[in-house]
Fold this protein.
Amino acid sequence: MRKNSTPDPESSPYGEPRRRDTLTSTITWLTAVAGLAALAIAGLTLGAWMYHRGGRTGSPPTLTITFPELPDGDCGIIRTPDGHIVLIDAGGPNSWPELRRTLAHVGVKKIDLLVLGSPDASGLGGVRPLLRSGIPVLSVWNTALPATDRARRHALDEIAKEHVPVRIAAAGLTSVLGTSGARLTVVWPPERSPRAAVDGVLCRLDFGQSSMLLGGPLDAPTEDYVVSAAGADLPCDVLQVVDHGADGTSLEMLRRTAPEIAVICSEQTNPPSPGVLHRLQAAGAEIWRTDQQGTITIHADGRGAPVVVGSRQ
């Protein structure tokens, strides 16, 4: 007598084990997942490579300008997307400790160009300790001003001791900053002009479609010369207000520059002039002050409007 046979749950109706089909499907699934993972990794690697090579697949790289909150004087730290560093002035006599902390925070290991734009100690006080700090300074742009004051003599003596090459900053002098396409150009003073022995250095920074006017200081009479002689180079997105907002920044200067953003390196004990603030407001500029917003950093991608961040926000 034949016993009733119960189908094996692990077998197919044709007698082949289902276990083999399950194993085959699992292997196929794992192979597909591994292939997708490999494609994802390859895509990420290619995207990163294209980003660094210029074929931007994500957010564009940014150039930053940092204006530290200093107890005296002023300073601007330019960092290009490829790490090229420009320091415009180095703060006043009491500013080095805070400037040193800001340089470390920004990640500065060397300074490709130091611009001595200030005609007085408000931008030169930190030069000596900077050169003694161990941070290499590769080149210097200096004014044609005579070294009659103590701060300038000390700064130039230290630069000579370190054998740093120096060029006189006159209108038209240009430096291409690294490989990012950023360009720094001296706008004022003109070469072989009597103003070269009197005035500070005004620079224009261009990065893509973004532009900034940096440096100084320039007093009100000097601005008249600048407007008449360098008017074509003045329109900008960002204006560093000269002389800590104490003087200058005339209506005509603002008409020519037409800035969207105005940065004032102001001190707690020496706030900007109400007249300067009123003229900036009337011109429609967004005002940022280090005595109120702390250290100010501007991010520019060369395409859209620059983005400003204050350390006290």
In short: Confidence is low (pLDDT under 50) at residues 1-7, 9-19, 39-57. The chain has two domains: 17-58, 63-310. DSSP finds eight helices and 15 strands in the chain. Residues 120 and 149 are 8 Å apart (CA to CA).
